[in-house]
Amino acid sequence: MLRDEPTSWPVVGTRDIHRDNWVVAVREDQITTPDGGEPFGRLVVEHPGAVAVLAVDVDDRVLVVRQYRHSVQANVVEIPAGLLDAVGESPLATAKRELQEEAGYGAASWTHLLTTLVSPGMTTQVFHFFLARELTEIGHGDFVLEHEEAYMTREWVAFEELLDAVLAGDVRNGATATAVLTYAVRRQRGDLS
Question: Where is the Nudix hydrolase domain (predicted)?
Fold first, then answer.
């Protein structure tokens, strides 16, 4: 069967390069090969994981937000997404929370689309993708939008328009592209009811 195989090479030393109360930490591990070769260093960005929600309405429109992302200095078109930063919360529960907090919507129908390793050569981040349907506007609850989120805008876009923008390289957010392409393929294959 074709699948990733969990394993671990021997770690002979580790040191923190950056660790604080924020989301990510960076460490350097000294590892050896399974046969005991010479140790070598690998940087690891520790990340709690994240979710992304492709919210599709009855008119085949997708709910997107535009959010300023300082690292790329752009207002980026994205689907609602967020961190697995609540202790004990499942990816699905996080997806439901993020859809409400970021977009003010709830959904009666949820489908897991895909789970990916974002960049396994350097980070522990796992991304869980969900399809949300049967949407209802419910407000943000007691969540307060601040910093960049306070300036987010929300809009509905025809799925085909969003797919075209992803394929043209005009919408480049990795989570958005992954969700859109996965949905297109799974829908074409008849995997989604």
Answer: 45-184
pTM: 0.92
In the chain, what are the domain boundaries?
11-46, 50-189
DSSP for 165-183, written as a single string: HHHTTSS--HHHHHHHHHH
Amino acid at 155: E
* Total Cβ atoms within 10 A of residue 42: 14
Residue type, 25: A
Per the DSSP assignment, residues forming a β-bridge with 56 are 62
Judged by DSSP in three states, 193 sits in coil
Counting other chains too, the contacts that 188-193 makes at CB distance below 8 Å and 24 or more residues apart are 192/111, 192/131
pLDDT tens figures, 58-96: 999 999 999 999 889 899 999 999 999 988 999 999 999
The b-or-e profile of 54-93 (16+ CB within 10 A means b, else e) is: bbbbeeebbbbbebeeeeeeeebbbbbbbebeeeeeebee
Q: Which of 149, 155, 160, 161 is catalytic?
A: 149
What is the SS3 string spanning 2-49?
Answer: CCCCCCCCCEEEEEEEECCCCCCEEEEEEECCCCCCCCEEEEEEECCC
Q: Which CATH architecture has domain 50-189?
A: Alpha-Beta Complex (3.90)
CB 9, CB 33: distance < 8 Å: yes
149 is annotated as an active-site residue: yes
- Round to whole Å and give the CA distance between 168 and 162: 10
